[in-house]
Design goal:
The protein is of the alpha/beta class. The chain has helices at residues 5-13, 19-24, 29-34, 80-83, 104-110, 150-153, 183-191, 233-241, 259-272, 290-296, 337-355, 417-420, and strands spanning 40-43, 57-58, 68-69, 73-76, 86-93, 112-115, 127-130, 134-137, 145-148, 161-162, 173-175, 196-199, 205-210, 214-215, 229-230, 251-255, 275-279, 300-304, 308-309, 315-319, 328-333, 367-370, 381-389, 405-408, 425-429, 439-443. Strand 20 (315-319) and strand 21 (328-333) form a beta hairpin. 39% of the residues are buried.
């Protein structure tokens, strides 16, 4: 019996491997029948932002490629600061220019070198003095001069020099595999001159809503009878998945409360998607066909029902077309809108990240502290909608320093999608807890 959401996620994750490693092997029949984008070698451009690196990016040369100055100022030779208070400026080293070619022995007797941030440090110089720690004198008919301030005299050897290779040596890892390419990774990839990168294929997700009560979101209230409701879960799931840049635009399907038709839809979805997210039909009703239909197609249900509120009836399963085919993930989310929305964040997002090749898919959540807690407790894991509050709003100077404050958004239960719309996310409390936390916070965006 699985006791926690985390252990349920681990159990599913243990059966999944990142999409591309299934599809990369040449001649793998799965890759042909799936026609899925395998690890693709693509030029670096903005469309790669959000994709997951399938192979590490290596540096083509030392980073930085030479000793360079970290400051605008004066490069000095050993001993120059102590030897003399005022020095002529005999040369200049600018970013983007070859450094002056000086003989350290003679140059160190003659003067210092004006240098700019990012410029190469001339051979023999052992530190850079920021210009603001000098008194500069501009001369028209003789070299400019600099005089050391007391601050300049305290600057020790090695200061303000970025050493060749201090970030990474040539051939070392610039960005490891499994990283999502965001701004810093794109910059690192560019800086090491990589012209191509390997990324995992996009994870294909199918959303299947179920239930005969569901109508199109375009239905107007004059024609929509009170026993019908608009299909809001599809929008909730799409909105949440939209934040995963390594997910292909999801397919949205709808199944009726009829097992044969539902079976056909699920099988079709499994053929062309790595993930099938169902909403509704997992509970105890006579028309809750999801568990039996999954059974009938040979899916392996790893858990059905967890000690969790909302979302107790949640179902996690895997499916393999044949022993060589990739293992697909199926999550049966309870139909209640609050359960489905929290469930997709809590269960589907980390597992989709795992399938997408994200190395840190098991990332720990930020935490928030509640400004006020009730007395109620539950003997199960409790996901509770919260709104983030500005520290100042509490009017309490001591708590203003506390990061991540939140207040509970009290709703009318797992059908109350309108109160959920007033929240920023939810916290999860373990069984029997009723203190202010801090508790892990799961944001909507
Ligand atoms: N006898 C029992 N009944 C129920 C139990 C139980 O343990 N014993 N569990 C309850 C809990 S908790 C939940 S959660 C729900 C889950 O039920 P299902 O997953 O089978 O979902 P449905 O019955 O199909 O729908 C529940 C509810 O959600 C609405 N819904 C469904 N899909 C959508 C959608 N796409 N957009 C908007 N709203 C949707 C649906 O109309 C129902 O109101 O079961 C309890 N029952
Ligand atoms: O678990 Mo249900 O989701 O409480 O309403």
């Amino acid at each position: 019996m699985i006791q926690s959401p985390d252990s349920a996620i681990e159990m599913l994750a243990a059966r999944l491997v990142p999409v591309a490693s299934e599809n990369f092997a040449p001649g793998n029949p799965a890759s042909q029948t799936l026609a899925h984008e395998s690890i693709s070698t693509q030029p670096i451009n903005s469309s790669l932002i959000g994709r997951v690196l399938a192979e590490p990016i290596l540096t083509d040369r030392d980073s930085p490629p030479a000793d360079v100055s970290a400051m605008d100022g004066y490069a000095v030779f050993p001993g120059q600061i102590d030897r003399q208070l005022t020095w002529p400026v005999i040369a200049e080293s600018a970013a983007g220019s070859r450094p002056p070619n000086l003989n350290p022995e003679t140059a160190s007797q003659q003067g210092v070198i004006r240098i700019f941030t990012g410029a190469m440090v001339p051979v023999g110089c052992d530190r850079v003095i920021q210009r603001e720690h000098t008194i500069e004198q501009v001369n028209s008919d003789s070299p400019d001069t600099v005089e050391w301030t007391d601050k300049a005299k305290s600057i020790t050897a090695g200061t303000n020099i970025r050493r060749q290779g201090e970030n990474q040596l040539a051939g070392g890892i610039a960005v490891p595999a499994g990283r999502v390419i965001q701004g810093p990774q794109a910059a690192a990839i560019t800086s090491v001159g990589a012209s191509t990168v390997s990324v995992y294929g996009l994870v294909r997700v199918a959303i299947i809503t179920t239930g005969d009560e569901l109508a199109s979101r375009d239905e107007n209230s004059e024609t929509l009878p009170p026993w019908m409701i608009r299909n809001s879960n599809a929008e909730a799931l799409l909105g949440i998945l939209n934040r995963c840049p390594y997910v292909a635009p999801p397919t949205v399907l709808h199944g009726p409360d009829e097992p044969e038709e539902l079976k056909t839809i699920i099988e079709k979805a499994l053929a062309t998607h790595e993930v099938v997210l169902l909403t509704g039909g997992v509970s105890m009703g006579d028309r809750d066909y999801v568990p039996t239909v999954l059974n009938s197609i040979g899916a392996e249900t790893l858990f059905h029902r967890l000690p969790l509120r909302p979302g107790k009836p949640i179902l996690g399963a895997v499916h393999q077309l044949n022993s060589k085919a990739p293992t697909k993930l199926i999550i049966g989310l309870p139909g209640n809108p609050v359960s489905a929305t929290m469930g997709v964040v809590r269960f589907a997002l980390p597992l989709i990240a795992r399938l997408g090749g994200v190395a840190a898919w098991r990332r720990s959540q930020p935490t928030v502290t509640l400004v006020e807690v009730g007395t109620k407790t539950l003997p199960m894991h409790w996901m509770r909608a919260v709104r983030l509050v500005e520290p100042a709003e509490t009017g309490n100077a001591a708590s203003a320093a506390t990061p991540g404050l939140a207040e509970l958004v009290i709703g009318k239960g797992s059908g109350d999608l309108l109160s959920l719309a007033q929240s920023d996310g939810f916290i999860e409390m373990p069984p029997h807890a009723n203190n202010a936390g801090p508790w892990p916070f799961y944001a909507w965006g």
